[in-house]
Write a structure and sequence with these properties.
Layout: E1 10-16, E2 19-24, E3 33-37, H1 49-54, E4 62-66, H2 69-75, H3 87-96, H4 104-124, H5 132-144, H6 157-165, H7 173-181, H8 190-207, H9 210-225, H10 232-243, H11 255-264, H12 273-283, H13 290-300, E5 331-338, E6 341-351, H14 358-368, E7 374-378, E8 384-389, E9 392-393, E10 401-409, E11 414-418, E12 433-439
Parallel strand pairs: 5-12
Antiparallel strand pairs: 1-4, 2-3, 5-6, 7-8, 8-9, 10-11, 10-12
Helix pairs in contact: 3-5, 3-13, 5-6, 5-7, 7-9, 8-9, 9-10, 9-11, 11-12, 11-13
């Protein structure tokens, strides 16, 4: 197990008590249970002269409660509303906690940042292949924000993941779980999936690899929930084996292993379940990092969200994208111009999947060339509003602002037309030329 830096962040709120014990972290559904006790602690300095002399100046004790779970996660969020390479894990945690105290605007900005990180990873995939487990996490994160991972702007990430592992002799069960959540199991290759999951259960049960066994049980039961035929006797055997590995303190060895086992046993009845949950609750504010928070929160919410696909069981349709040749995707020409610098402008041509919004064009362009970096906030409707491009903000006093224009080629001359609304609602046509113009007048007055 890799050693992680232990980080404990304390809230600024203080309470006037002698001791405070967090019994269980906030999970998004109820208030944290706090045990306030006003006990007197014996001290070797009780009768000291200094204590007696200064007792009249003594103030009430101020104890700061450490942050954990959703509160900790939001406290370490970056300015771009993401968590860099851990954005997928953070979004999943927030989704299973019904987004905690985050506002609708914040949720939309976090969803956009997830798409940015995914696009960045996908673009880099041409030079640095994406690790299958990262792709599996992105599949779960897309489901968490109600985006179809089988058709993300024409890309079927589930099919891509299956191609990565199709020829592997041994498949990590977490990858099988992601493909099950994305409903790839029901696409005519179900026998292969059941075979892989069954082999994983038999193999890890034999060598006592408890974490891998828990993952394998999760994947196998997920396939059963997809109406695939599973061996209930084998499921019962694995459950009994896992339950028998529980320690006296309620754990299964450490916080990571315990979280995985609690998830795997979510559908089972076992006597010491509350003891395991109590162990995780206490660990959520003492063993704090992104990985532990991710595992703990999935475990604490496993009774309600057994699998990621259960977040939205009725309104998520995993319809795969139609096959397309990516080399045939059209280019969109995107230009930046400024009225203050009339002799220079910058243009980038980006190959985009069909039905991509111009906001997607902007995100991909910024990844390719820093001159196209931009800043935005969520409007009242939750859609992005651009307020700065290439480090140049809108200037209301100078009446200068970024205006989105589309170029229309007439027979006699070229002209420009303003594009109303958010760039996320504008869908360019193939080979169309789009311009963000920093100017005072409307596009039509150019």
């Amino acid at each position: 197990m890799v050693n992680f830096l232990l980080v404990v962040i304390f809230s600024s709120a203080c309470v006037s008590v002698n001791s405070i014990k967090i019994v269980r972290p906030w999970s998004g559904h109820d208030n944290p249970t706090v045990d306030y006790t006003n006990k007197t602690t014996k001290s070797s300095y009780k009768d000291s002269i200094a204590t007696k002399a200064f007792s009249k100046y003594r103030t009430e004790t101020c104890v700061a409660a450490p942050l954990g779970g959703v509160d900790w996660l939001l406290s370490v969020r970056q300015k771009d509303y993401g968590w860099k390479e851990d954005t997928h894990r953070a979004v999943i945690v927030l989704a299973v906690n019904e987004w905690g105290p985050a506002s609708k605007e914040d949720i939309r900005l976090m969803e956009h940042q997830l798409e940015v990180e995914l696009t960045k990873a996908y673009v880099k995939n041409n030079t640095t292949p994406m690790y299958p487990n990262d792709l599996a996490l992105y599949i779960h994160a897309l489901i968490a924000i109600r985006r179809n991972p089988r058709n993300f702007f024409g890309i079927d990430f589930a099919a891509d993941l299956e191609r990565m592992i199709q020829n592997h002799r041994v498949v990590h069960p977490f990858l099988l779980l992601a493909l099950c959540n994305a409903d790839r199991v029901s696409d005519g290759n179900s026998n292969w999936y059941i075979h892989q999951a069954t082999n994983a259960l038999d193999r890890f049960k034999r060598i006592n690899d408890i974490e891998a066994l828990a993952h394998a049980l999760n994947a196998y039961e997920c396939m059963g929930s997809r109406d695939q035929t599973v061996n209930e006797k084998l499921i019962d055997q694995v459950r009994r084996k896992l339950i028998g590995m529980q320690h006296e303190d309620g754990s299964f060895g450490n916080v990571y292993t315990t979280s995985l086992v609690v998830q795997a046993l979510a559908s089972a009845d076992w006597n010491n379940k509350e003891l395991a949950l109590e162990f995780l609750g206490q660990s959520s504010t003492t063993d704090v990092n992104m990985v532990s928070t991710y595992y703990i929160q999935l475990a604490l919410n496993a009774d309600r969200v057994r699998f990621i696909k259960d977040l939205y069981p009725t309104d998520m349709k995993m319809v795969p994208a139609a096959f397309r040749n990516k080399e045939e995707d059209p280019f969109i020409q995107y230009t930046l111009r400024s009225e203050k610098f009339t002799d220079a402008y910058f243009t980038i041509s980006i190959r985009m999947a069909p039905n991509s919004s111009f906001f997607d064009v902007m995100k991909l362009s910024a990844l390719q060339d820093s001159k196209f970096n931009f800043s935005y906030h969520a409007g009242q409707d939750g859609k992005p509003v651009i307020y700065a491009i290439s480090g140049v903000p809108n200037d209301i006093e100078d009446e200068m602002s970024w205006k989105l224009c589309e170029r229309t080629d007439n027979r006699d001359r070229s002209s420009y037309k303003g594009v109303p609304g958010s760039p996320s609602t504008f869908f360019p046509k193939p080979y169309q030329r789009i311009l963000y113009w920093y100017r005072r007048e409307k596009c039509e007055n150019a």
